[in-house]
């Protein structure tokens, strides 16, 4: 497989790029994307068989099942980061090794309905929180230990809207390539 093609499979919507100037419309769009993610994901995967769920979305990539569980795990961490940044002064967050998490028993075998249901509840709480944030709240930051990078809550909203769309595109890509798209 050509390197360019592998890169396109890894990043079908490109990399996340944050600019410090974000319009109210863009912010609203990001929150709407987060609100829609659980339903969009469920609609895409709920009809899949175990064999289909255990298919990698690209050569050397995670299975669809692992991607579904990863989204739930990752967005769980994101929600906690929002809470820390809102209640502490520039907290240093704890990073997690997503690749190792994806190797765990639950990521490889648990029914996806567990993560789908969790995402519905988590995103309902997250979106409720995000819609109530002030401009000052959006400027609050946490510190990511990989490089001691300050991440604003505004950037984190965009990052996780992108993250959900990034993984939806992974799943949509394999569904299209395999002809598994439901009418």
From TrEMBL:
Molecular function as annotated in GO? hydrolase activity; metal ion binding
Which InterPro entries does the UniProt entry name for this protein?
A: DinB-like, DinB/YfiT-like, Put_metal_dep_hydrolase_YfiT
> Which residues are in the DinB-like domain?
34-171
Against HAMAP family, the record matches this protein to: YfiT_hydrol
Classification via Pfam families: DinB_2
What protein am I looking at? Answer: DinB family protein
Q: Which domain of life is it from?
A: Bacteria
User: What keywords are assigned to this protein?
Assistant: Cytoplasm, Hydrolase, Metal-binding, Zinc
Q: Which NCBIfam families does the UniProt entry name for this protein?
A: PRK13291.1
